[in-house]
Amino acid sequence: MANNGIIFDMDDTLVRTAPIWKSAETSLLHLMGATWSAQLAAQYKGMNTLDVARVMHKRLGSPLSLLQCQQHLRSALIAGFANPVEPMPRAIALVRRLRKHFPLAVASGSPLEAIIAALTQLGLVDAFDQIISSESVPRGKPHPDVFLHAAELLHVPPEKCLVFEDSFIGCQAARAAGMACFVVPSASVDQLRPIATRIYSSLAQVADEHVRQALSLAAWPAVACHRPSARIA
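Request: output the structure for the sequence above.
Response:
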């Protein structure tokens, strides 16, 4: 069993995906006879596609069934990830730095196909020991299921994991899993202050000492716990 592990959210944590998500959401909302708004998006930011569609369907009503809404949003999102993606500032450098010392996982609300497409574009897919969509666990964020599953696959106790997130819902999930959580916010900081371990304006600000403190380490692990190919769940 590894002593510690690092778990990354993907959307707007590692990869700038807000425009892709907004386009897919707008497409679904158009079919539902509604329009996109920041107020609506704030209710589901950080959730997976299935839960985002569920929130929209419940809040707005729709001539489409819930299943139709979920299928449309998921398909639109996967199509969006076929286009070029952009890493968040210093995300690639941080992943490469941490993978030398810790097993790494991605635990994202995007469909697995989208996660793989984005990480492959950025040359990061092999940097992770585990790649997980929260569509594959019983409950998506803000429930802790995907982070607990990631810890289990990494063979690391939850309390020995550090999560990188951008959303309030994602941070809630990490803390519910009993994990430290570093956040570069994609929205208001006010909700995050009581629950985030640390809040940054950029991943460039994440210092080695911060990681060691969050994981209660005196020094970096001497040997990397990294497998050559990611296991995908």
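The mean pLDDT is 93.
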